[in-house]
Amino acid sequence: MLNLFLSTMFLNTLTPKFYVALTGTSSLISGLILVSLNHISPLLGGEPVANNDNGNTTITNGTTTNGNSNNNSSNNHGQQSMPECKVWRNPLNLFRGAEYLRFTWKINKDPLTYYDMNLSAQDHQTFFTCDADAGKPEYEIMQTAWRERKPQARIKAANDALEKNPECATALILLAEEDASSILDAEKLFKQAYKYAEVLYKKSQQTMHLGQTQESIHRRDTNVVVYIKRRLAMCARKLGRIMKEFPILTMFNIHENLIEALLELQLYADVQVVLAKYDDISLPKSAAICYTAALLKARAVADKFSPDIASKRGLSTAEMSAVEAIHRAVEFNPHVPKYLLEMKSLVLPPEHILKRGDSEALAYAFFHLQHWKRVDGALNLLHCTWEGTFRMIPYPLEKGHLFYPYPTCTENADRELLPAFHEVSVYPKKELPFFILFTAGLCSFTALLALLTHQYPEPMGIIAKTALTWIYMPVSYILEKLEAILPSNLFQQLSRI
């Protein structure tokens, strides 16, 4: 009885200001909970509040290690530790003098970033130099040339090296890449460099077993020969002489170049053979592999595919296989479809790419868009189905479906690799639903009114009366007009009916 008396006395002592403050505080807390719900739900394994509409990186300078391995959950393979993301050299990178420089002259903008060119300089130093170069003037000059920041300084150093040794293959490589103004000129320089490089390669091959120094020389000579062969193949591809100069497939990792060349020749069966070798769960993936596999499956059904018919009768086995392949490709790199569907403009691809990033998507679409257009109905099938991927992976940063969760730092890395005038594609973009935003705004507005009423009760009372008067004025005006137009006994007649 005493407790009831004390409780009643306590409640009687509370003023209206307390209830106003309590209402405002509870409204504010409710708004904060609703806003944070979208971010807390994934951690608790709850249902998604917002949908993803569409795009962990430790940036390393190496180009030989993949950071994304396939994790096929449908085959019950165990989840492995998340690997680091790596920057890879673009296997189809363009020629600086014959292509990038012409772009710069045309629009007065540099398509390559300093970070990208610096990575290339480090690659060239790794590929084309060794410890045994000390004491050889032409090689010492080239070691300096690869580190030069300005193109003119690099070209001058290469010419100086050729004055010391007219058969310096690495100097000819630099001139072919940066000084040649056309693909034909670049090809001539590469062929000249290959003639000298092959002699050095055969010579070092005979002495490679004599010690570590000779082995490092042979490794350098091998890199030079392989690089020249690859670039000669690129020249041949651009000049219409496809595949004649491609090196042996097992000699170097050139399968993406080979896939693109075979697609140009429309040798789809040969493309399937290459994919069968490289599209394996234990091997690194790329956008070229995933999207080419999707293209081949789409080719079998795309010409007859109709979304209206498919929605009525359902998807056939072949159509389902094609759609699943598209979903797999989109999960690996969600940036590619917008370039293929020409929803976003292309720029020249960088010399280095980040797997699953916008840079890789740009490089893939730049060379493969024509192959998708050549297959009748393929882009229509992609347009109708690619966004369905995001329903399977509503939280791609936390959990993937067929691959590892999407890396969180690709945006920062791509901004370093891509020029400033290109709008970097970001994934995923999360948008709060309108209900969440409206409720949060309403709660915040209510809390603000409660706080102002608590601090300034009299002015807020006057404001409230004024606001009600303003609101009532148009309502009363409308009612007066209705009474003047309608008969006075209308409501009585309606009630009788």
UniProtKB/TrEMBL annotation:
InterPro entries for this protein: ST7
Cellular location(s): Membrane
Matches recorded under Pfam families: ST7
Chief localization: membrane
Record field: compositional bias (Low complexity): 51-76
Membrane topology reported for the UniProt record: Multi-pass membrane protein
Disordered as annotated region, ranges: 46-83
Keywords: Membrane, Transmembrane, Transmembrane helix
Annotated family: Belongs to the ST7 family.
Protein name stated in the entry: Protein ST7 homolog
